[in-house]
TrEMBL record:
Database matches in Pfam families: DUF1811
Protein name (Swiss-Prot/TrEMBL): Transcriptional regulator
Coiled coil region boundaries: none
Gene3D superfamilies: Hypothetical protein YfhH domain, Hypothetical protein YfhH like domains
InterPro entries per the UniProt record, alphabetical: YfhH, YfhH-like
Superkingdom as given in the UniProt entry: Bacteria
Amino acid sequence: MEKRFSEMTKEELEQALIKFKEGAMKKHQAGFFSEAAILEQKFYTAKSYLMNPEDFYPETAYTVIGYEQPFKITYLNGIMAWGVFKDQEEEVAFPISRLQAVE
């Protein structure tokens, strides 16, 4: 049975990142886009455990990797940032590793 990301050491998480990134590239090249997307999501979730959630601030706008519109954080729950996109009301969540500061 595999460990949870929250139970892994930094080295184990870094190995998992490599595995997920390589797996996603192979699945994408083979045309298995759904499976590639799942591995990419696992990559971002694992990567979030190497980051500090305290570096992300509610009521601040960020760019979400793979999306065009700014994303404003409402609140954080562990490694997940909950918030809304500009001009939308529905709240969604992303792993903090998918967020980048708006420049």
